[in-house]
Amino acid sequence: MIYSILLVIHNALRWLVVGSLLASLGMSFSGLVRQRTYQPLDQTLRVVATSIAHTQLLVGFYLYAKSPIVSYYWKAHPTFADAQEFPFFSLIHISLMIAAVVIMTIGSSKAKRQKLASEKFKTTVIYFAIALVIIFIAIPWPFSPLATRPLYRTL
Ligand code: HEM
Predict the structure, then answer these.
(1) Which sequence ranges are marked TM in the entry (predicted)?
(2) CA angle, 10 then 14 then 18, to 5°
(3) Measured from the CA of 90, which atom of ligand 1 is nearest?
(4) What is the model's pLDDT at position 73?
(5) How far is the CA of 34 from the centre of ligand 1 (A)?
(6) Low-confidence ranges of the chain (pLDDT < 50)
(7) What b-and-e string marks burial along 109-137, b requiring 16 or more CB atoms within 10 Å of the CB?
(8) Which of 4, 83, 134, 136 could be joined to 100 by an S-S link, Cβ 3.0–4.6 Å?
(9) Does ligand 1 lie within 6 Å of residue 131's CB atom?
C-alpha cells in the first residue's frame, strides 16, 4: 500500500524535478546573457530545485528497497531477469539518477559560495544542464528505448 502511494508520488515528482530544474536553468541562462545581478529568486529556484531532487532520491531509495522488479533482478529470477527493464531499474536508473543529483548538489553549493553573479549563473547553467540531460535519459518515458512507464499514475 505504501509502495503504491510512493510510486504515484515518485511518478508525479518527476514533473517537479524536471520543471524546477528547467526554471532554475532558464533563469540562470538569461541572467548570464543579460549580465544582471543575482536576485533572491535565483537563489530560491536553485535551492528548491535541489531540494525537490533530494526528496525524489529518498522516495527512490524506498522504492528500490521494496520493488519486486529490483528484487527479482538481484535473485536472478530465470523468467524475468532477462527483460530489459530489470537491469534498467536495478542498475541504470539508480546510478544515473544518483549521479545527476550529486552533480546538482555540487553545482548548487559551488554557486552559493561564488561571489560574482556571472560566476553563480555560469556554474548553475553548466551543472544543472548536465544533470538535466542525465535525468532526461534515465526517466522511463513512454518513448524511452530503455524502459517505459506512464506519464502519470493514479492509485
Ligand atoms: C531524481 C531523479 C529521479 C526521477 C526523475 C525518477 C523518475 C522515475 C519515474 C518517472 C519512474 C516511473 C514511475 C512509475 O512506474 O509510474 C521511476 C521508477 C522507479 N524509480 Fe525513479 N526517479 C528518480 C530517482 C530514483 C532513484 C535515486 C532511485 C533509487 C534509489 C529510483 C528508483 C526507482 C524504482 C525502483 C522505480 C521502479 C519502481 C517499480 O516499478 O517497481 N528512482 N522513477
Answers:
(1) 12-33, 45-65, 85-104, 125-143
(2) 160
(3) 35
(4) 87
(5) 36
(6) none
(7) eebeeeeebeebbbbbbbbbbebbebbee
(8) 134
(9) no
